[in-house]
Design brief:
heterodimer, A: 110 residues, mainly beta, four-stranded antiparallel β-sheet, 53% strand, B: 115 residues, seven-stranded mixed β-sheet, 0% helix, 56% strand
Chain lengths: 110, 115
Amino acid sequence: GNSVTQMEGPVTLSEEAFLTINCTYTATGYPSLFWYVQYPGEGLQLLLKATKADDKGSNKGFEATYRKETTSFHLEKGSVQVSDSAVYFCALDSNYQLIWGAGTKLIIKP
Amino acid sequence: ETGVTQTPRHLVMGMTNKKSLKCEQHLGHNAMYWYKQSAKKPLELMFVYNFKEQTENNSVPSRFSPECPNSSHLFLHLHTLQPEDSALYLCASSQESRDRYTEAFFGQGTRLTVV
């Protein structure tokens, strides 16, 4: 079946460091791919998405590229801030529902 | 503010209690969802309602009972829960079409503790 695998956290970085959170998927067909973010005490919010191979989603300085050849959708940011501390979820759509990764907690230290 | 409101934000209940979680969306969406979020586990989809019809029930125990009286409101009725049911319960909505999945909007969740 379809599945999403994310790197385990927590990921701890200093402010202004480069961020990569890995996400790989298994799916039939060509699903859309998503990154959601959950800030402390809040629900999930869509961060970015890509709907076909080689698409790049971007938002708030974060980027992720839909790589069909490696079945990956890694999240990157060039310079993280303390306010980026949150839990990040990778997901794909399957039959009009989302399949979720386990989430990666990101901690940014000043 | 995502347009999806959940109440209450926090709930503590005994194993013999009956309580309900409420979700309301102001986005005009046609699909609503209940998710369970437990520590260190992937989000678990519990129920899906599409056009007020339940289209998905992922083997959820009968002590959880959903209700969708209209396309804007969704309830989760709880009775005789177990301590392992303690979790964050998230409601979400989206606009479904035949072509593609679209973005889900989430409420802030209800933190449930069963004692």
